[in-house]
C-alpha cells in the first residue's frame, strides 16, 4: 500500500510539473485528496506558516519592484557582473548561506530568491544555476547555524551535549565544511544546462512574448525616481537585515507572558510582520504604485509559488507522516546492521521528515546507541539536509516558480530536477570535509 501511495505522490508532482504554474499546487491537492479519501491517510499539517512567510516576502519584493528598486539592483549587479556574469552563481549562494547562518532559518531565502532570479535573467545567466545552489546553501547553513533548531537539538543534553561536545566543536566543523560544500556545489552548477540564450524553454517563452529581452523597453527613471528606487532598496535591505538580527540575537525578540509562562516570539511571525511592514514603509517613502506591484513578475511568480506549496507540501507531509512508523523501523534496522551507513540513514530520514531538527531527534539517539563517535556524528550532521531530493519542499518549489525563464525545473522523471546535483555535491563534500576536520581534533 505504501508504494501505491508513493506512486500517487510522484504522479501528482510529475503531472503538476508538466502543467506548470499553479499546476503543481492543483495536482498536489488532487494527490492529497486521493491519499486522504482513497487510502485513508490522515491529513498532514498544511504549510500555513511557510505560505504566509512567502506572501509577506513577496509583497515586500513586489513593492520593491514597483518602486524601481529591483531594476536598480539589477543595474548595480550588471555593472559588477559585466566582466564575469557567472559571479552571481557564487555570490548568491554565499549571501543565502550567511543570511541563514545568522538568522537560524532557511525561510529568509524567500526574500532573496526573486532578486536572484531577476538579476540572473537580466544578466543572461541561466537562473537555474544560482537559484538551485542558493536553495541548497540555505539548507546547508542550518547545520552550521549556532541558533538553528537543528543545532540546538544536536547540542541537547540527551544527545551530543551530554557527551562533552560544545557549540564551538560543532561550529568549528560545520561552518567550514558546509561553506566549502556550497562553494564546490556552485562550481558544479556552472556545468549544468546550456547557456540561457540557447535554452529551448527560454527561447519558447521569449518567442511567445512571455519574457521581454529588450532592455531598452524598460523605463528610464528620472533622478527623482532613481532616488526613490535607491530608498526602496535601502528599506528592503534593512528589513532583511533586521530579520537576521532578530534571528541572531534572542534578546531582541519580544517576550510575552501567556498563561503565566514567558513565551518568545517565533521567527516565522517576526518575518511576516517585518516584511509586510517593509512593504508599507516602501509605499510611504518610495511612493511605489501598489497597482503596479500586483501586476509585476515577482508578485505573479510568488503567488504561483504559494499555491504550488499549498498542494505539494501538504501532500508530501500527509504521505510521510502517515507512514512514519514504517520509515523509522526500516531505517533503524539497516543502521543497526551497518553503522557506517548512518550518514545515508540521516539523509534518507530527512527526506521523509522535511526537518533537520526532527531528523536529529529521531536518529541521533540511535547513532549514540550504536557507539558512533560524537565527533563523527558532527561530521555527519550535514547529511540531514536531504529534503531537496523530492522536489516538494517549499524553498525548492518557490525557486522553480520564481524562475520566469523556466530553466529551474522538475525533470521528466520528477527526481531529475535542478536541485539534485548541487544538493548531492554540497552534502557529500561537506561530510568529507567534516571528517577531514575532525581528524585533527
Number of domains: 1
- Strand percentage lies at under 5%
What structural class should be given to the helix and strand makeup? Answer: mainly alpha
Write down how many β-strands occur, each being a DSSP E stretch of 2 or more residues. Answer: 2
Largest sheet: 2 strands, antiparallel
Largest sheet: spatial strand order: 1-2
Euclidean distance between termini CA atoms: 47 Å
**Cα shape:** globular
Order of helices and strands: HHHHHHHHHHHEEHHHHHHHHH
Mean pLDDT: 82
Keywords: Cell inner membrane, Cell membrane, Membrane, Transmembrane, Transmembrane helix, Transport
GO molecular function: C4-dicarboxylate transmembrane transporter activity
Subcellular location: Cell inner membrane
Family: Belongs to the DcuA/DcuB transporter (TC 2.A.13.1) family.
